[in-house]
Amino acid sequence: MIPDKAPKEDVFHGSEDLRRNAHVPSFEKYKELYVQSVENPAEFWGAIAKDFFWKSQHTGRFLDYNFDVTKGEIFVKCMEGATTNICYNLLDLNVHERKLGDKVAFFWEGNEPGDELTVTYRELLQMVCQFSNVLKSQGVKKGDRVSIYMPMVVELVVAMLACVRIGAVHSIVFAGFSAESLCERIMDSQCSLLITADGFYRGEKLINLKLLADEALQKCRDKGFLIQTCIVLKHLSTDPEALVSSHSPPAKRACPDLEQKKQTGKVRKAHPVPQVPWNPDVDLCWHMLMKGASDECEPEWCESEDPLFILYTSGSTGKPKGVLHTVSGYMLYTATTFKLVFDHQPDDIYWCTADIGWITGHSYITYGPLANGATSVLFEGLPTYPDVSRMWDIVDKYHVTKFYTAPTAIRLLMKFGNEPVQKYKRKSLKVLGTVGEPINPEAWLWYYSVVGEKRCPVVDTFWQTETGGHVLTPLPAATPLKPGSAVSKSWTFPFFGVVPAILNESGEELEGPSEGYLVFKQPWPGVMRTVYGNHQRFETTYFKKFPGYYVTGDGCSRDKDGYYWITGRIDDMLNVSGHLLSTAEVESALVEHKAVAEAAAVGRPHPVKGESLYCFVTLKDGLAFNQTLEAELKKQVREKIGAIATPDYIQNAPGLPKTRSGKIMRRVLRKIACNEKDLGDISTLADASVVDQLFQNRCCSAV
Predict the structure, then answer these.
(1) How many whole angstroms from its chain centre is CA 444?
(2) Phi and psi (nearest 5°) for 603?
(3) pLDDT reported for residue 260
(4) Are 95 and 125 in contact (CB under 8 A)?
(5) More confident call, 480 vs 453
(6) Which of the residue ranges 24-33, 80-89, 649-658 would you say has the lowest mean pLDDT?
(7) How far apart are CA 441 and CA 83, in angstroms?
(8) Rounded distance, CA 221 to CA 218, Å?
(9) Which residues pair with 283 in a beta bridge?
(10) Where is each AMP-dependent synthetase/ligase domain found (predicted)?
(11) CA distance 50 to 43
């Protein structure tokens, strides 16, 4: 499962200071603890559980499960019989027991530079208790589902923690999703209340969130589902009283004076303020409700396996699934993965650039960091606004030590060269992380060499909404990286308690160097428990194909040293003349060319080979696509992978169709490759105009 020893040619990439002071164990100690976590999870996780408060202790097996559909219903249970409250452990414990009340929980950085707010653990606890009482006053009780549709503001964290404080189940919907997507998720989880905001800016673009929320609620009503209450946060409006007027015209926000800055801690650029429609029968103002709410609220003690939250997958590969996570196991797992994967230290300033609307934001902005008493940056804006140096400006401003972002963002910023990065010092950085997709070699090397100046280890984390937290990942200062050509690839080890295996199409476990389906043989505390309201879909999706295993849906290879390499989604694999090809591998080969900024590869039916390879490439600024470049790219793929992987078609793509979370919608690219105009639901596309352009640029020979 893990290498017997670190390969001799491996070296550690990172400062010696980090290695000396790291929480994470040495490689040999890592091996010893890993074996304990797999063979005796009760002892391993039980020791970690002692760091948290339990109203009552567990009575049964620490971790019980069935992964085999042929032996009965699939289930996972952790610490059954124990009771606790995750909000109490994240806030009350830190304020009252660990004496961290005055420590900063969040540095909030708004869309506009200078738009900022600092919130301590004590202040966060007070706000959460107040809003918990607000929810209770609206009839929300333990087990009720609450939909949250908000921008990246501190109040989003307040809303989710208030839910879990009273035992309600939050269902957060990414604020970039459409009204239809919000309606679908509200109805599927049968939410009793919606929390939203008037609007927000993403760069220069205004998102009128309240209009979208109203449209979603109307769609719910049209389908016979009524939401009685919608709580609206004033984020852009200058005055809560003005918010409740349905006829107030848009206005230019005047730059606040110094007194307003002292009162609010926020300074905003003058942007048009949206007109906010108001339905007095449904809408309630967040600020007015908070004014009269007590800042004391006893937590609701919950069973270990009580629902914590529902989070829907993005829907880029099919109908969204409501992934359900539960209280105790998720708390233990996110706290532990955060502490070890990022080598958290008490004086760290941690920044995860994800949106809380995704699992990364749940686990590694809210739950994991707060469980460790960490200080985090919470960022509302874009990496390119007001200029392409924004992220590095923020790193220097807050002295960020641990930085966690997506390969999509890295590739985007690479296009603009080194100068926007190198004009900032970045000396505070100690660990760099990536999340969301396999990172291509060129992006990895740029991130490591330019952003981290070859002194910060890169933790390239593999996990899913379903896993709750990291499952395959390096540990900084413990698991070594390979120098030379392999250093730029996505290698990983299993995290504690995680037992990976690689299966062939027949479900047989492969030993040694191999490639096939990535599965897990036993659960870890943070794994999902079901698909909300559809346990059969849960069993069919993750356990039916290979009984006895959790099936990730990803391909994976293992090298001679025992390192795991994620090759991409199985549905992004191509069968060309009987050879299984990874689209991620083809894309990496294309992006290694100096002219290519980003690439995507999909399959297209072929009468002889079964499938042919159709590739889309986005070039770096100022470069032109021509036959010479096309020939160079085909040669590069052939040389990197082999003749079997030579693309049949390469299309110039000034832009790629992506969801608002940055994921490429390969389903749409397959349609374009086949010249099929029926694209299905593309409401999650960030920019639908890209599709028309791609159809116009189709390769002429691909009829």
Answers:
(1) 18
(2) -95, 150
(3) 38
(4) yes
(5) 453
(6) 24-33
(7) 46
(8) 5
(9) 230
(10) 98-530
(11) 11
